[in-house]
Amino acid sequence: MFLLKAKKMTLGYNLITQEGEPSNDTKMTFGILRLEKGNEYEDSNEKERAFLLMNGEVSFSVNEMEKRAMRESLFDQGPFCLHVDQRSHVKIVAFTDVEMAIVSTTNDGNFSPEFYTPSEVEDEYRGKGTMQETSTRIVRTIFDKNNSPNANLVLGEVVNYPGKWSSYPPHHHPQPEIYHYRFLPSQGFGMALLGEEAFKVENGDTLKILEDKVHPQVSAPGYAMYYIWMIRHLENNPYINPTFVPEHKWVMEQDAPIWPEKRQR
Predict the structure, then answer these.
(1) pTM of the model
(2) What are residue 232's DSSP bridge partners?
(3) What is the CATH number of the domain that holds 225?
(4) Residue 257 maps to a domain
(5) Residues contacting 154, CB < 8 A, separation 6+
């Protein structure tokens, strides 16, 4: 299945999809970690890993580095994220109840741990000034080939305004990708196109994007949609930029004539 419906999360690590699955393998393992105040979690998985704080206050310890982070809103605050290689032993201490996304993949290379904060991750307002603002959204690219050249992962977030589109114009890329959704209010929903199929996405759902399929998204009016996006570089074919569907590229033009056109009177 490409759409993995939300399941009830328990304390500890909740696996959602795993590298090496017999079908629809994204080459990534993804899950949600939930900790109660005062709990600790240690991870020595021999994979490249990224720990993205979604809610709560924690400390991260890796090698000789220790960092503290607090996040109260996925929609209004930028990310805190620890990114480590296969050698790194990570310890997480929860100072409040905590929710965290963890993504990992095979990577035989080595690199130093990096800790990303909101001050280092730009809120990019993609689509602004075009398409009558119907595709304006916030994109936060945490790391990619530009700032993490030895990684096999790309990681970021999108905040999708109510009733607007993202991942738009429709685009595609051969590298596998995962989207994990949250909504505000939580009973919200959106629609995700995957090739010629449409999926209703709700709070806590996860979408696996494979086979170079186009994947535009839209949120229902009244509901803000947030999703984490994770991309796996392919050997000798890293993700750099998507390919836009040619017949829809015109909508990005600053003065594209989109009905109803605003005319001077």
Answers:
(1) 0.97
(2) 153
(3) 2.60.120.10
(4) no
(5) 141, 143, 144, 145, 229, 230, 231, 232, 233, 239
